[in-house]
Amino acid sequence: MEEKMNRLYSNVLNKLYEGADVENLIVATYLVGAEKDEDPILKAASIAIEQTTGSWVDVPGETDEIRERYAGKTIGVYEVPDFELKMDLDQTVPDGGMRFYIMRIGFPVDNVDDNLPLFFATVTGNITAMPYLKLLDVDFPKNFVKKFKGPKFGIKGVRDLLGVYDRPLLNNMIKPCTGYTPEVGAKLFFEAAVGGVDIIKDDELIGGDRVFNKLEDRVKMNMAAAAKADAIKGEKTLYTVNITDEVSRLKDNALRAIAAGANGIMVDVFGIGLSALRDLAEDPRINVPILAHCCFGGAQSVAKYQGVSSVVLTKLTRMCGADIILIEAPWGKFDNVENKYISRVIACSGKLYDMNTSVPFMGGGVIEGLIPIILDKTGNDCLLGVGAAIHGHPQGPRKGAVAFRQAIDAYMNGQDLEEAGREHEELGIALAKWGVYGKGNVKENYLI
């Protein structure tokens, strides 16, 4: 007897999780909005088809055999709230109103395999032009992840390089962000390093060769400053030089920086692209930690009904080899949602098969008065990213770095931060200038 059922309802395209070959499916989870009378099962199947074997109308070459092997599979469609009764639906959603669904769609690994640009074409692709569609998460099967080498160093490796195991790490970004000469930068570098900073990075706004600041010049001068500071403080300093550039120049920039003595590199990851990061990280000649700055990532993630969740971007950045990943802390300059921040930290440091971890790097207007809330939420396996609060300390960047080490020590020793500020002049001055989270509105410190 001829099959009369709409093929978009068929078991070929709609699978129970238990009946799907999930070891060979990349399962994407979407938030999808639909008009009240739209059929969500058909909508999910249409998305799955559009992004794999078919189109908006049946085409002769898309056989059931092709669909079974290569079409996207609907794993689940869940409405929020979870209506069971039409009476409840009609009372809650007016005619012409919207209904929202969590849709989970599996894409065969064979469609993408070891091709990250094709992954984006498949899992986001044309459908991101639809209104009310956002990629919330991706479940990556081991068959896909095993092709990615991930971070070379991760949390343990970075700690091993620094010889620091019993506290969070401290980072400083050289300020001003750009426009300075290597000589000016080296002086600022030395002051922050000798005050107790573990890792110093270029700002995201200065990358590669600039007419006023050549890459190899700033590497040599900053590494000389690091050696001088290390001899005084008895600790090691890493410098992640920003090599961000056109992709055709990236590898050369990295190798030139390492040859000049750099013990770390940095990229603006969404400017260069995740595949470019992966190419750097998987090159055995690039044998230093890579710090990934997330600037431009927000353009993909901040819309509540569109784009790609920052958690997905963080997970992919780790898979592509970033040893350190910047995450904007929600209590400082940025207004991020706290639970999303925590999820991104987990994406850095949680178990991802056998892949190395990435160091979660907290940035965005970090001041001494935020140390307790950040570490309470994040734990100690993190990198505290401080820019202006070190260079803008009233006593200068050296004392600004000292103040942060005092704040970290107070937290690790269970001491009240303000009590520690009364004992240590540098910390006390910083707390008086910028305040303490929970004791006032620290957001007033920021101009944006």
TrEMBL record:
CDD domains: RuBisCO_IV_RLP. Residues 23-144 form the Ribulose bisphosphate carboxylase large subunit ferrodoxin-like N-terminal domain. GO terms for molecular function: magnesium ion binding; ribulose-bisphosphate carboxylase activity. Residues 154-434 form the Ribulose bisphosphate carboxylase large subunit C-terminal domain. SUPFAM superfamilies: RuBisCo, C-terminal domain, RuBisCO, large subunit, small (N-terminal) domain. InterPro entries: RuBisCO, RuBisCO_lsu_C, RuBisCO_lsu_C_sf, RuBisCO_lsu_fd_N, RuBisCO_lsu_N_sf. It comes from the Bacteria. One of its GO terms (biological process) is carbon fixation. Gene3D superfamilies: Ribulose bisphosphate carboxylase, large subunit, C-terminal domain (3.20.20.110), RuBisCO large subunit, N-terminal domain (3.30.70.150). Belongs to the RuBisCO large chain family. This is Ribulose 1,5-bisphosphate carboxylase. It comes from Acetobacterium paludosum.
